[in-house]
Amino acid sequence: MSGKPSYLMAAFNARPFGMPVPPNWFGIAAFAMLGAFLSPGFWVLGAGLEVAYLAALSGSRRFRNVVDASRIEQQQAEDPADRRYRELLEKLAMSEQRRHQQIETRAREIIGMLRASPMMSTHADSLEQLVWLHLRLLAARQAIARVVHTAQQERAQLAAQEEQILKRLESGEIGPELRRSLEQQVAVIDQRQEAHLNADRRFEHVEAELSRIDQQIALIREQALLATDEGSIGSSLDALAASFNEANRWLNNQRDLLGVFETSDYEHLPKRVLSGSTRPSVLKQGETQ
Questions:
Q1: What is the average pLDDT across 38-65?
Q2: Helices marked H in 59-175 — which ranges?
Q3: What angle do CA 280, 73, 273 make, to 5 degrees?
Q4: Are residues 132 and 269 in contact, defined by beta-carbon separation less than 8 angstroms?
Q5: Partner of 207 at 20 to 30 A CA spacing, among 29, 86, 218, 249?
Q6: What secondary structure letter does DSSP report for 119?
Q7: pLDDT of 62 over the 70 cut
Q8: 3-state helix, strand, coil in the chain (%, to 5)
Q9: Half-sphere exposure of 208 (CA within 13 A, CB side)
Q10: What is the DSSP secondary-structure string of 4-16?
Q11: Which pLDDT value is given to residue 120?
Q12: Neighbours of 80 (CB within 10 A)
């Protein structure tokens, strides 16, 4: 339920935080009993007070923020895609969250323009998937960055350890069991060094993909704003869809380093992202102050 009727119903059933029964119900019951046992005039008085109460509370901006927050939480509880999207976003650093929110804003504007045209509206789904991909890439970037940071800290230490072990292996004063153990250490160090180099390459690849998405979305927005020919926009969107498929395949192949991203083959963006609404946090659910 949306619009003013939802606020009126919420005001009718509103209760202070921690109170099991709405106080409005007690008021209605009290005036009903007074009208029945004393004078019917109390019914008229109670009805007038009820209308004034509902109008004042439902028109309060603070109260509406509480109702909107409760509605968003219910939608998130019912929408698994919304939950996955929010979990991925909340794991990012604040700078990365702001970077993704800029993509959301541009994509929202483009999707609005695309859906205004019957011929172009079919491309809106591809753009939604690109926003999902951008979020997944940011999560991947953050995971890879931790490995790269570790590599930078340990690069010199690993090289020194390997050099020391090789010197011991060159001497003939060690037994076969110790030699085998030292050789295994060298193999492990080599594998770690290779993994660090691989992480560097993957980090550069993710950065390149993120920059490409930023530029492509900016290009499509500019074409949608300036171009009178829908064909030029459509060709850019077709190219975007092809590059999306390529980047998505690459990302799915990086599970050994990045872990499994819980996404299906196709998911729409959460409604709150498309509408541009944010999650209010000014009051706890149920407060009516």
A1: 83
A2: 61-78, 80-90, 94-115, 124-170
A3: 70
A4: yes
A5: 86
A6: T
A7: yes
A8: 80, 0, 20
A9: 10
A10: HHHHHHHHHT---
A11: 64
A12: 12
Residue indicated by tokens 């011991």: 168
Of 109, 96, 100, 135, residue with least CA distance to 244: 135
Rounded average pLDDT over 159-176: 82
| Calpha distance 234→108 (Å, rounded) | 17
Tokens 């080599």 correspond to what residue? 190
**pLDDT at position 260:** 43
**Total Cβ atoms within 10 A of residue 151:** 19
Query: How far apart, in whole angstroms, are the C-alpha atoms of residue 213 and residue 133?
Result: 9
CA 138 vs CA 116, 141, 145, 231, 283: distances in Å: 30, 5, 10, 31, 31
Residue type, 284: K
Residue type, 161: Q
Provide the token pair at 67. 């109702």
Mean pLDDT, the chain, integer: 75
CA nearest to 91, candidates 49, 30, 143, 166: 143
> If pLDDT is split at 50, 70 and 90, which confidence band does 261 have?
very low
Measured distance CA(253)–CA(243) in Å, rounded: 16
- Is residue 16 classed exposed, middle or buried when 0-12, 13-18 and 19+ CB atoms within 10 A define those classes? exposed
